[in-house]
Amino acid sequence: MIGTVCHSIEIENFRNIPSASVTFTEGVNLLHGDNAQGKTNLLEAVYFTALGKSFRPVKEAELIRFGEESARVVNRFSDSVRQQSLSFRLFAGRGHRIVEQNGLKIGRMSEMVGAFRVVLFCPEHLSLIQGGPELRRSYLNVALSQLRPLYLQSLQRYSKLLKERTALLKRAPEDMATFKATEPMWSAQLAHEAAIITIHRARYVSQVNDHVRACFSDMMTKYEGGDELPELTYQPTMGSEWLESHRDDPDLFTDQHRLEERYLELLTTRHDREIGAGATLWGIHKDDVKITLNGRPARLYASQGQQRSLALAMKLAEGWVSAYESAGDMPVFLFDDVLSELDAHRRDYLVQEMKGRQVIMTACDPAAADFGGAVNLIHVDGGRYTQKEV
Ligand code: ATP
Ligand code: MG
Fold first, then answer.
1. For a surface tag, which of 2, 213, 258, 374 has the fewest beta carbons within 10 Å of its beta carbon?
2. 144 burial type by CB count under 10 A (0-12 exposed, 13-18 middle, 19+ buried)
């Protein structure tokens, strides 16, 4: 059994796709065609059914085909237990959507995210090591939201609370009375959600770390030589001195009460600095994942090739941990234009790793999917999809 499999996707008026029904096979599926035809759009529709949002920065209404009132995406998929369906209807203007899982209406996204799991790999992810911390936070958020509904709930609550508290900080110089009266309530709730998120992130990073090390060593041994060892460490924003003084405490990141107390302390005793900055300065929205190679920062020390191998290892690790947490069911891998960005060795490695998994990928050139086996070729032209099996 291959794990989670997307069998078909039906689309109406999503992006440049007027109407489409595309079937996928269990192995490799390649969407190929010229630029701007709708390859990424279809991948985006599949991703949308997993996370309830796009991987591109876009307003929901922009996902609806220009000039249309609503869009629909239906994903029929299975895991090792059962066949399922997820259906989304998006409406222009009203900012409202109807979501159904197996024909039953879903009220909150956290009830459905995780039913259909994906690992997306696109060129932007090749900057996971070199890029800013928001890329690594997003890596954690996308992976953890699919694994733990409680994580997603906390994250959604945290984002709302953070907005409120930050607005309050910005208004504080003019309205100190309101700030003093309401800040304790926002900070207490924020600290509570931050502690929950911290526990999940700390555990996830240590799980991913094991797989990244194994994948990276494997790639190095096979292709490049060298025995450098990577290490991923969760870096929460809780004050470096405080973290240092708790460095040897193995229970720190499982003790919700203590983490919450610490966040609350930070949020209630440093108001001058926060009001000066007009921003909430401590919390999970500032977190990072430290990535080192033989103890040195990979961002500065690792070669370009090693950074790419690390990014690739992080994506593969995301799949492994997802499978581990879901009774062995591998998620579906979505590769947007990424194979052409990898050199021959890393491409070979990825191809080997994808054996026995479902992959839906995009590329201009149909030869891109040289996976040494059958490939479901889907030609994309102006939002229309033509399939022929090879
Ligand atoms: P590339 O090879 O360059 O990555 P692609 O085939 O992946 O191309 P997509 O990103 O899937 O291209 O599709 C881009 C096209 O979709 C663009 O021409 C864009 O104008 C169109 N498009 C995007 N959003 C909408 C929308 N809401 N309605 C209609 N067309 C849209
Ligand atoms: Mg594209």
1. 374
2. buried
Q: What is the pLDDT of residue 389?
A: 52
The encoded tokens of residue 276 equal 């000066």
pLDDT in tens, 120-167: 999 999 999 999 999 999 999 999 999 999 999 999 999 999 999 999
Read off the pLDDT of residues 352-390 as tens digits, 9 standing for 90 and up.
999 989 999 999 988 877 777 789 999 999 999 999 754
- Nearest C-alpha to atom 9 of ligand 1 is from which residue? 38
Q: Are 74 and 17 in contact (CB under 8 A)?
A: no
Predicted TM-score (pTM) of the model is: 0.96
AA letter at 162: L
| Percent of the chain whose predicted confidence (pLDDT) is above 70 | 99
Residue 344: pLDDT over 70: yes
Structure tokens at 70: 């609503």
- Tell me the C-alpha distance between 340 and 346, whole Å: 11
Ligand 1 shell residues, CB under 6 Å: 15-16, 35-41, 62, 64-66, 337, 362, 364, 380
User: Is the pLDDT reported for residue 286 higher than 80?
Assistant: yes
User: What H or E segment, with its residue span, contains residue 289?
Assistant: strand 288-293
Cβ of 212: how many Cβ atoms within 10 Å? 26
What distance in Å separates the CA atoms of residue 182 and residue 161, rounded to the nearest whole number? 12
**Band of the pLDDT at 183, cuts 50, 70, 90?**
very high
Region of 54 (left: φ > 0; alpha: ψ -120 to 50; beta: rest) is beta
For 246-300, the DSSP string reads: TTT-TTGGG-HHHHHHHHHHHHHH-HHHHHHHTS--SSGGG-EEEEEETTEEHHH
Q: What are 221's two structure tokens?
A: 């041994």
DSSP-assigned beta bridge partners for residue 106: 99
Q: What is the DSSP string of 323-340?
A: HHTTTTPPPEEEEES-GG
Ligand 1 nearest-atom number relative to CA 63: 27
**Helix, strand, or coil (residue 310):** helix
Q: How far is the CA of 66 from the centre of ligand 2 (A)?
A: 18
